[in-house]
Amino acid sequence: MAKLKMKTVTIVALKKDRKFLIEHLQDSSLVELDSSQEAEGFERPDLSSRQQAFERYRVNADRALKILDDVSPEKKGLLASFSGRREIDPDRIGEIAETAPETMEICNDIIALNKKCADNAAEQVRLKTGISQLEPWAELDVPISLKGTKSTAVIIGSVPTLMNEKQLAEALAKDSELAFDFDIVSASRIMTCFVLFVKKEQKEQAQALLRELGFSAPAYQGDGEPKAELEALKEKIEALSKESDEAKEKIAEYADRRRELEDVRDYFAVRADKYDAISSLNHSKHAFVISGYIPEEDCDKLQAICDRIDPCIVEFGEADENAPVKLKNNAFAAPAQGIVTMYASPSPDDIDPSPVLAFFFYFFFGMMF
């Protein structure tokens, strides 16, 4: 168990070698950049538009993967969750970059198919609502939208209470001048649906009486008879369900391309991080400067990388109390480091709690298991 001694590092190289150096530093994770140091006479390029573009690609790839996992979950072993993040072979980066446009087309297709399923689900809810609104009118043999004939007004609707023919007739007979006929289509304890026939010139009188009863027109308005409308709505729901199933089958067909999607997601994440790192570096017209911290034991590794560039200047110095802390533990305590750093890394003067945490974590996990 140990907290590694840290050194400051400053690297100066030409812009033409920036891509090589940044990518190797990303792969090796040797240096933690310090973007707080701005050098006089240098500037920091604004690459946010490129970074955001790569971040959008990463988000779309990640979204497509989650959709694929929902539709066609990957079969994993019992210990798969302990395997950690899959690493990409650096030699394959160029190959992934070459096939990235084609892979992103797959991602976009998966997202579009999933959207089709979501739209269909929303439409099915709307249609089912229509069915529930139409069911009380299933026995009506005229269209709900019917308004009447040349001499007769037809009023179709419901009152929010249970009424029989006698009660409805008595309520309408309050206006002694009103000539009417009606037919109760359906009745329940919360609603009575009916069709009222009155003379055209008495329509307003009838509507005034009905308003007193809490009358309301049907929520669903269709041009066909309710039975035919109900059948049409059910057929639409069935067609949408079939369309969604076909879309899910197409998504599942991409299951064998899952690794490609994971690779392109990680590739764009690396590219976004790269441009974020470049934006935090100091640049002149022909050169750039990297400032940061490195564990003392890794200084030789960094020097070996920089020696592959000519010219390249590397300077190491003593780190102060503001330097970040890097933990190094054996195989027993290493898994607990992630939990420690998730809250806060210990300061240079504090004790690394990872071994103690690991012991109790394993102990209590074993008890629960």
What features would you highlight for this structure?
five-stranded antiparallel sheet; 369 residues; 48% helix; three-stranded antiparallel sheet; alpha+beta
Describe what you observe in this structure.
Helix content is 48%, strand content 16%. It has ten helices and ten strands. Strands 2, 3, 7, 8 and 9 form a five-stranded antiparallel beta sheet that branches. It has a three-stranded antiparallel beta sheet with strand order 4-6-5, covered by helices on one side. The protein has a two-stranded antiparallel ribbon with strand order 1-10. It is elongated and about 105 Å long. The relative contact order is 0.22.
Brief rundown of the structure:
By secondary structure, this protein is an alpha+beta fold. 48% of the residues lie in helices and 16% in strands. The strands form three sheets. Strands 2, 3, 7, 8 and 9 form a five-stranded antiparallel β-sheet that branches.
